[in-house]
Amino acid sequence: MTNTGKIITYQSELDYLSKCILESPRRETGGNLFGLWTPFGIPFIHYVVGPGPKAVHEPTHFRQDFAFLDKNADYLVKEHALHHIGSWHSHHSLGLAEPSSGDTDSTLSGMKECHLPSFILLIGNYRHGKSTVNAFRYDSKGYYVKLKWVVLDGDSPFRKTYDNMHGDLVYEPSGEPCMMPLDACKLADDGQLGRQERPVFAPGYWLSVAENRKEFAAIVKFLKAEFDAVSIFQVDDATVEVRIMDSMVPYKFVFGAAFPKEAPKLLALKSKKPQCSFVPEWTTEGMSLSEAFIHYFKSIRL
To answer: How far, in whole angstroms, is CA 189 from its chain's centroid?
Structure first.
């Protein structure tokens, strides 16, 4: 699998996340991420903010204390030039290790409102007394890709300084960190840092061809005209999913290695085939790929 992106942080910030996740095994908790972007477009988390005193923690929902976030943001920007580059929350022991449809909707809505080209979302989980956390990067076009961790040893240079100066604004989780092994990588692979601006696809995969990427853009544009909540998720270097999440039965089209010889797979978001009363035959004869998909889509009966 080709690396689709990286995210950098210090061990101290992962330890902080781990303690927050472990102390809330039955309710969602969360917070915010402050840092910078490297010249190669890699997000670098320097400081993790936890939940504020008025944050809402429910079994399937977390809402940050926005007054608490605003105060932290003011100081982190003014004193350390660290910016709000993402957010995090836990799905505790629910078993959902990736963004939910609601997570994607709220993230893309916030990006649009603030005119952000990229935003990071971390999803934490509680696993039998241990924690884990996965990182995802969204872009303004609705894509999100899973990132691999580059973990720097030791403490963030901002953690102790900021905590000492603003103890009244710092959430202190209890207990000890216990993080499961993460999906990690080195900062430099084969001597190349690699730019992160766009997804990377395997040679031979249809989206590795520029003309086909234009066709895919036309497919996504069509779906976004039909539905309000459409997002694109790169599963690996030869699989892309287009997720439609504002219907009564949320589903996804999976464009795998066999596309366009075979039709995109139509699945429910939980990977079970939706009940279809009619699925047409797939054909590209006499049509572009986008025209073939649109014809196929309009003929399906859910």
So the answer is: 22
- Give the C-alpha separation, 149 to 135, whole Å: 8
- How buried is 267 (Cβ within 10 angstroms: 0-12 exposed, 13-18 middle, 19+ buried)? middle
H helical segments located in the chain = 11-22, 66-80, 101-114, 159-165, 210-226, 289-299
Residue 179, pLDDT > 90, answer: yes
One-letter amino acid at 138 equals: Y
Report the chain's C-alpha Rg in angstroms.
21
**DSSP reduced 3-state for 200:** coil
pLDDT bin (cut points 50, 70, 90) of residue 102 is confident
Contact 11, 157 (CB under 8 A): no
Question: HSE of 249 in the Cβ direction (CA atoms, 13 Å)?
Answer: 11
* Amino acid code (one letter) for 197: E
> What value, to the nearest 5°, has the Cα angle with vertex 277 and ends 276 and 283?
75
User: How confident is the model over 70-97, as pLDDT tens digits?
Assistant: 999 999 999 999 999 999 999 977 667 8
What pLDDT sits at residue 194?
Answer: 44
Is there a contact between 143 and 232 (Cβ–Cβ < 8 Å)?
Answer: yes
Question: DSSP states of 255-270 as a string?
Answer: E-TTTTTSPPEEEETT
Residue 255 in contact with residue 206, Cβ under 8 Å? yes
Gap between the Cα atoms of 281 and 266, Å rounded: 13
Q: Pull the structure tokens for residue 267.
A: 């699945």
